[in-house]
Amino acid sequence: MDLDVFVTAHRAEWDRLEQLLGRGRRLTGAEADELVALYQRASTHLSLIQSSTPDPMLTGRLTQLVARARATVTGARRAGWRDAARFFTEGFPAAVYRSRRWWIPTALISTAVGVLLGWWIAAHPEVQGVIAAPEDLKALTKPGGGYETYYSSHPAGSFAAQVWTNNAQAAAICLVLGAFLGIPVLWILFVNMLNLGTGIGLMASAGRLDVFLGLILPHGLLELTAVFVAAGTGLRLGWTVVDPGPRTRRAALAEQGRAALGMAIGLAAVLFVSGLIEGFVTPSGLPTWARIAIGVAAEVLFLTYVYLLGGRAARAGDVGDVEAADQTATLPTAA
After folding, report:
1. How far is Cα 162 from Cα 155, in angstroms, rounded to an integer?
2. What is the largest CA-CA distance in the chain?
3. Which whole-number Å values give the CA distances from 159 to 167, 260, 265, 293, in the listed order?
4. Residue 75 — pLDDT band, cuts 50, 70, 90?
5. 319 φ, ψ to 5°?
6. What are the start-end ranges of the H helices in the chain?
7. Which end of the chain has a smaller Cβ tally under 10 Å, C or N?
């Protein structure tokens, strides 16, 4: 395509579109129709230039012009309670449901790794000696030791807030760094499972594994599920870089990235619940069975929420992305 000839042929249309956008008064019906037609043509022109002979200055001008025209044609829409309700009843659970083929294997493999690490540490005293000195290990695992007092070492409210902040950051990192082929996500998962396996191994070697599980399960079921969902979504985002499917890599990453951003917000809410359990239930004086029952109930409610609401929304076509009206227009590209 001869760029000079193309610009000469269509410059008048772009100038006219810019003129209509710059009017301070309300457009007449005929002018509004003209603006819509010019906007559609300018979108096509931008697509052709980007796919054949991209020119930075011309592309910049047309991108800005198309964006202004789109905002004028579609109108600005402010998010409200309806959007929040839709997100938590459709968008977020649908995104979690649709990514289940990623986070369920992630959960199973990670849990197996954590258990194997725990068995290895418990079965090898020499490994325990590398972790810490014998007196330090005893201080951690004895009745009233470090593992037991950790959850009551701070006021429940501030402890819950700290736990929620740390876990939300870890989940967000998994989602954001997934674009780097998922490699940082695998490292974060390994560190988490190493910490879990160390606790299992040390407390099992002291004959107090039941105490450890009674402390970790009430909040850990929901907390680890949220981490696994974040990690699975991050790995899925990383795989999109490798295999975007029938779409362009840019379009596929944009859709998955928007879904991951929404996932971060939804998982922050889930981790807030697990933080409350960790701050107020785990260190409470409730019987062990009651504390574990609360954790199991929270986990079952979350999975039911995902599979019922999320499954229904996913079957209706919701992919966890923002609504079509809020997405950047996808223009056709030349072959």
Report:
1. 11
2. 85
3. 12, 27, 21, 22
4. low
5. -110, 5
6. 3-21, 29-51, 56-74, 81-86, 92-98, 100-123, 125-131, 134-141, 146-149, 156-177, 183-205, 209-242, 249-276, 288-305, 311-315
7. C
The closest of 289, 266, 272 to 90, measured between CA atoms, is 266
Q: For 218-241, how does the pLDDT look when each residue is reduced to its tens digit (9 = 90+)?
A: 999 999 999 999 999 889 888 888
Q: pLDDT of 83-114, one tens digit each?
A: 788 888 988 999 999 999 999 999 999 999 99
Task: Match 């007092």 to its residue by tokens.
Answer: 149
Tokens of 227: 């981490």
Contact 278, 219 (CB under 8 A): yes
What does the mean pLDDT of the chain come to? 84
Give pLDDT, residue 49. 79
Residue at token pair 């008064």: 25
CA distance 305 to 66: 40
